[in-house]
Amino acid sequence: MTSAVKHGCDHVFFVGFLGAGKSTLARNLGRMFHRRFVDTDRLVERRCGSTVTKLFEEFGEERFRELETAALEGLRGERSLLVSCGGGIVETPRNIELMHDMGFCVYLDGDLDDSLRQIRRSDTRPDFRSAEHAARLLEHRRPLYEQAADLTVDIRGTSFTDVSYTVAELLLERGLI
Ligand SMILES: Nc1ncnc2c1ncn2[C@@H]1O[C@H](COP(=O)(O)OP(=O)(O)OP(=O)(O)O)[C@@H](O)[C@H]1O
Ligand SMILES: O=C(O)C1=C[C@@H](O)[C@@H](O)[C@H](O)C1
Ligand SMILES: [Mg+2]
């Protein structure tokens, strides 16, 4: 048990803009340290038996955000998870509180162009409309990611593999993994 354990929870949350590499990082660290990893978008999909895209289309973003918060709440009973979060998780102030309450939050602070390149093959993303919209969204979200972050990692110009090793080291140093 480390001093970072809060309310019996010791999860590590990864936040950042779309395509930053949150899911890849959680998966890589999970394999390296034999820790379970989950993704909030997949948790919502599993709970609802639907896809994020369909949920946005059928019920709108507001309902999706409620479901996202419910999925986060659902992690209270679990231990030691690596959690990759939906890119918009910080839009809901309660989610920032929940992450602080349940563990440690890492912000992957990346370059917008890298994000856009990394998602270019995804054609079903309700969060992506245009490069201009993405730039505005990142400007709006950066302070929210910073508010959520216990640790900010500058991932500009860094390969997915190097990000995994860097973050592994930073978490090990803090006794969080
Ligand atoms: N090792 C890698 N080398 C190059 N590209 C990769 C690598 N791993 C992932 N990618 C690409 O980068 C994209 C984004 O990575 P990832 O899904 O981990 O980001 P994310 O932050 O979880 O994105 P999302 O906003 O979709 O949840 C992947 O869809 C994939 O196309
Ligand atoms: O950035 C966002 O607003 C989103 C990101 C995705 O992970 C999904 O959570 C959904 O498409 C919304
Ligand atoms: Mg992801």
UniProtKB/TrEMBL annotation:
- Pathway the protein acts in: Metabolic intermediate biosynthesis; chorismate biosynthesis; chorismate from D-erythrose 4-phosphate and phosphoenolpyruvate: step 5/7
Q: What class of enzyme is it?
A: transferase
Q: How is the cofactor bound?
A: Binds 1 Mg(2+) ion per subunit.
A cellular component term, taken from the record's GO annotations: cytosol
Tagged with keyword Metal-binding:
yes
Q: Subcellular location, in the record's words?
A: Cytoplasm
Question: What PROSITE patterns does the entry give?
Answer: SHIKIMATE_KINASE (PS01128)
Give the cofactors, semicolon-separated: Mg(2+)
The cross-references to Gene3D superfamilies, in alphabetical order and at most eight, read: P-loop containing nucleotide triphosphate hydrolases
Binding-site positions, Mg(2+): 23
Mainly resides where? cytoplasm
In this chain, ATP is annotated as bound at 19-24, 125
List the Pfam families. Answer: SKI
As recorded in UniProt, its EC number(s) are 2.7.1.71
Name its GO BP terms in alphabetical order. Answer: amino acid biosynthetic process; aromatic amino acid family biosynthetic process; chorismate biosynthetic process
Q: Give the residues the record marks as binding substrate.
A: 41, 65, 87, 141
**Which catalytic reaction applies to this protein?**
shikimate + ATP = 3-phosphoshikimate + ADP + H(+)
- UniProt entry keywords in alphabetical sequence: Amino-acid biosynthesis, Aromatic amino acid biosynthesis, ATP-binding, Cytoplasm, Kinase, Magnesium, Metal-binding, Nucleotide-binding, Transferase
Q: Which GO terms describe its molecular function?
A: ATP binding; magnesium ion binding; shikimate kinase activity
User: What does the subunit comment say?
Assistant: Monomer.
Instruction: Identify its protein family.
Output: Belongs to the shikimate kinase family.
What is the protein name stated in its UniProt record?
Answer: Shikimate kinase
Q: Which organism is it from?
A: Collinsella stercoris DSM 13279
